[in-house]
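Side project, low priority. Logging it here so it doesn't get lost.
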Amino acid sequence: MIIAGPAFSSSGALSHTLRVHPQVGAVREGAHFFDRHFDKGSEWYVATMPTVHQDQIMVEATDSYFSDPDVPRRIKEVRACYVCCCRCWCCCCC
C-alpha cells in the first residue's frame, strides 16, 4: 500500500495508525522509489523494504508522491494500492 499526501493532509497520521494493525507488517516512510528511484527497478525497491510475513502487507508513505505527475502511472504499473490523503483548505473545519 502506498500513501501519499501533501504536508498537513494527515498522511503521516494514517501511516502511524496503520503501524499498530496486525495485518500491517511494516511502514516505510520516504522511500521515494516512484518519484526519484524508479529507474533503479522494482528489485531495488523490494530490497529496500523491511521483510514482512506472508499474511501481512507493507505500507510505504512518501509525501512527495502527491506532487509528481508520473507517480500514479508508475504505481499502477506495479499494481500497488494507492491511498492519497487530501485536506480541504477552503474553511477552518479541517
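Brief comment: The radius of gyration is 14 Å.
Revisit when time allows.
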